[in-house]
Design goal:
Layout: H1 6-24, H2 31-53, H3 60-63, H4 67-78, H5 90-113, H6 122-153, H7 157-163
Helix pairs in contact: 1-2, 2-5, 5-6
Length: about 170
């Protein structure tokens, strides 16, 4: 079943690349680090627009994690009868929105460090570092959860994020 369009897949993997490059390859504070952070923020901004006007499963309306949707999903997991969602499940949607918010917060805190008012201010640096560590932790949790949910739902979630097609066993 086709689920993730080219834009969503390119956004996802480009954002993964930006985050990994900034954390493990590029030197913090250097020009390449800053511009990669700005690129990550631009990607999130574009994804937010695509969430309003994009393809069916890319739209926020298709997967918005309302309290009722989250509770129904959690109840089904507790019963070990997971609901099949073509797009994001409610917990995946919460994670996606949280990760995007963290990227934007990182962009703002990183930008602030380059301004006259906040250059060298310790709490801004500490905030930026804490946000980066939280992003990495939640991204790892997201990856593990995708693997676990793929097994529970008997779907190939990772393959779907590469090919755009979600297969149910």
């Amino acid at each position: 079943m086709p689920v993730w369009d080219v834009f969503v897949r390119c956004f996802h993997w480009s954002l993964v690349g930006c985050v990994l490059a900034n954390q493990f390859v590029l030197e913090a504070g250097e020009l390449a680090h800053r511009w990669t952070g700005y690129a990550a923020c631009a990607l999130v901004g574009a994804r937010m627009v695509w969430g309003l006007v994009g393809s069916r499963h890319a739209r926020f309306a298709d997967f918005w994690p309302s309290p009722a949707r989250v509770m129904a999903h959690l109840r089904a997991l507790v019963r070990r009868q997971p609901l099949h969602h073509v797009g994001h499940n409610p917990l995946g949607a919460l994670m996606m929105l949280t990760l995007m918010a963290l990227v934007l917060a990182l962009g703002v805190s990183g930008w602030l460090q380059g301004t006259d008012r906040f250059f060298g201010v310790e709490w801004v640096q500490d905030l930026h570092e804490a946000l980066a560590q939280t992003l990495l932790l939640l991204a790892a949790l997201h990856a593990v959860a995708a693997l676990l949910m793929g097994r529970l739902e008997r779907t190939h979630l990772l393959r779907a994020m590469v090919t755009g097609v979600k297969q149910f066993d």
